[in-house]
Each structure stands twice: as C-alpha cells, then as structure tokens.
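Side project, low priority. Logging it here so it doesn't get lost.
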Amino acid sequence: MLVIDSDCFTWHPDLGTFAAEASDLDYQLMRQGRRGLDYRGGQWGFHMRSLRTGKLLWFQRINEERDRENELQAVVFSASLTPNRTLRLRVFND
C-alpha cells in the first residue's frame, strides 16, 4: 500500500486544497521502492497519512489539468471525508 505523509504536501486553507510538486512525490515513491500509484476499485491513487492524527485517507485520481498546448499542468486527486465533503489535492508537473 502506497502511503505518503501529509507533510509532503502544502495545505492551502483559502482554497481548501493540498498541493505538491510531482518531483517531490516521485522521491516518496522511490523511497518506498514504488514505481507508481496504487490501483483500487478501478481508481488510481494513494493513501495520505495525517502526521497529526495518524489516520489514512484515500486520494483517488480524478482528472488532469492541461494548458492550451495540451501540456500537463497538474493531476487532480480527491478524497471523501463525508458524503457531502471532499478534499482536493493537486500535483503540479514541474
């Protein structure tokens, strides 16, 4: 199971989202001897471990953001906290 600690991400409270650079997450994958995301229930993603609570939260890949030239800008992930509340996470292509 791929688990990435919450301190690898920057929390943006004004947007209600987490963010990270792709190269930082690549390093985390490499550290764990992994080459890619987990595949669970037809979705690609990973678990984030809260360093404050120790709880795991599943973030699944939901889409990509591309510029006018179709260059990848970011990959967007989402995690459900409750049926009506989700968290977003953007991994920026650097």
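Brief comment: Residues 3-81 form one domain.
Revisit when time allows.
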